[in-house]
Write a structure and sequence with these properties.
By secondary structure, the chain is of the alpha/beta class. The chain has one domain (about 5-250): Alpha-Beta Barrel (TIM Barrel). It is about 45% helix and about 15% strand. Helix 1 (about 15-30) links the parallel strand 1 and strand 2 (about 35-40). The longest helix has 20 residues, at about 180-200. The protein is globular and about 45 Å long. It binds phosphoenolpyruvate. Phosphoenolpyruvate (PEP) binds near residues 166, 172, 211, 213 and 214.
């Protein structure tokens, strides 16, 4: 049995003051929903405050990225140990980083390795663009991203990873995939290549989330699918009521 997970990716939203307000609003209901692993990923600037508020709450805290080097002259970057001081999770390879900040399969892999070495749980994002989807390339792209992202990772470490299938065309667009389509990609193009690397039992044990315009009104469609274990949520994680609707749907 895989425990459902719902992670909120706040992206570049919320000042420290706004982040503190949202966490304080969320805490009572979020704390009570223990049937779901709940994770909040604020921007770096709010990570310290949010992690302090979440301490001993059972709710996980995570970053939205990290750099693979341990320390040194890398202006603007944040090291794995710095994230691990404040959180347990880190989103890696989000499509916005791949699209706007030059993230590649190779840099994703380096970040996954560095995150695991620091004791973090990476939430590794994969997904095809609209053009790739319409060109019939979903299988090739997603399988490549899974294989490349996991390159050189031991079976013991691979078990700790969470994968998020986020079709790029569905992120922030209001245009979600259908539950069965997302389930097919996860079962066929994520769990299968993972099984080829680490075995069928391991592929059935890892959690794979769906992300892309998840909201209260469509969450149940995704969570009802056999291979979808929860959601990575962007826009709908910024308001208490919207996020709680999704978390509560995952508990059912
Ligand atoms: C995301 O940023 O990971 C995401 C899925 O965004 P949204 O829910 O806004 O589509």
């Amino acid at each position: 049995m895989r425990k459902p997970m719902v992670a909120g990716n706040w992206k570049m939203n919320k000042t420290v003051a706004d982040a503190v307000t949202l966490v304080n609003e969320l805490l009572p209901e979020l704390k009570a929903q223990t049937a779901v692993d709940r994770v909040l990923c604020p921007p770096f600037t709010a990570l310290y405050s949010v992690s302090g508020l979440l301490k001993d709450s059972g709710i996980g805290c995570g970053a939205q990225d990290l750099f693979w080097e341990a320390k040194g002259a890398f202006t603007g970057e944040v090291a794995p140990d710095m994230v691990a001081e404040l959180g347990k999770y880190v989103i890696i390879g989000h499509s916005e980083r791949r699209t706007y900040f030059g993230e590649t399969d190779e840099s994703v892999n380096k970040k996954v390795l560095a995150a695991l070495a620091a004791g973090l749980t990476p939430i590794v994002c994969v997904g095809e663009t609209l053009e790739e989807n319409q060109g019939g390339k979903t299988e090739a792209v997603v399988t490549r991203q899974v294989n490349a992202g996991l390159s050189g990772i031991s079976a013991a470490d691979a078990e700790k990873i969470v994968i998020a299938y986020e079709p790029v065309w569905a992120i922030g667009t209001g245009l979600a995939a259908t539950g069965p389509d997302a389930n097919k990609v996860i079962a066929e193009y994520i769990r299968k290549p993972y099984a080829a690397l680490y075995g069928e039992a391991a592929a059935q044990a890892i959690r794979v989330l769906y992300g892309g315009s998840v909201k209260g009104s469509n969450a149940a469609e995704f969570f009802g699918q056999p291979d979808i274990d929860g959601a990575l949520v962007g826009g709908a994680s910024l308001k208490k009521a919207d996020f709680m609707e999704i978390v509560n749907a995952a508990a059912k």
